[in-house]
Design a protein that fits this description.
With 142 residues, this protein is of the alpha+beta class. The chain is 47% helix and 18% strand. The chain has four helices and three strands, in the order αβββααα. Strands 1-2-3 form a three-stranded antiparallel beta sheet, covered by helices on one side. The chain is globular and about 45 Å long. Bound molecules: zinc ion.
């Protein structure tokens, strides 16, 4: 299987079976965002304890790219330190906007192909922007 095909399959799989989809009643940080150009909406809820993302859930409606990206994002950040989460977010954006690659991104490299359709970059980056909003609230103490 070619890499491009594999990437497509990963995205379709996350779209059809989104991980960490739903609500998180004991969340202590949340944020939401939309991409009006495409109609994507993401609500994100986090449970952060001692600087670690203990649990995360998202819900909302959107296209395959935005939903798969949110699903993969939640899977990636769960159990990680906030400082590491921020680093990955930065690297993910560098890949989308500048075409940089990084081993640490792992499966997230599936979104590399989005670069050729600039309008879809906003779909891929939406959940990460929402995540950063939620993390900012934690910095301010909730
Ligand atoms: Zn979209």
């Amino acid at each position: 299987m070619e890499l491009e095909e594999l990437y497509k399959e990963i995205i379709i799989d996350h779209y059809n079976n989104p991980r960490n989809f739903g609500e998180l009643p004991d969340a202590n940080a949340s944020a939401e965002g939309a991409n009006p150009l495409c109609g994507d909406e993401i609500h994100l809820e986090l449970l952060v304890k001692d600087g670690i993302v203990e649990d995360v859930k998202f819900h909302g409606a959107g296209c395959s790219i935005s939903r798969a990206s949110a699903s993969m994002m939640t899977e990636t950040i769960k159990g990680k330190k906030i400082e590491d989460v921020r680093k990955i977010s930065e690297k993910f954006k560098e890949m989308l906007f500048e075409g940089k690659e990084d081993e640490e991104l792992g499966e997230l490299e599936a979104f590399k192909g989005v670069r050729v359709v600039p309008i879809r970059i906003k779909c891929a980056v939406l959940s990460w922007n929402v995540l950063e909003e939620a993390l900012k609230k934690i910095d301010k103490g909730g």
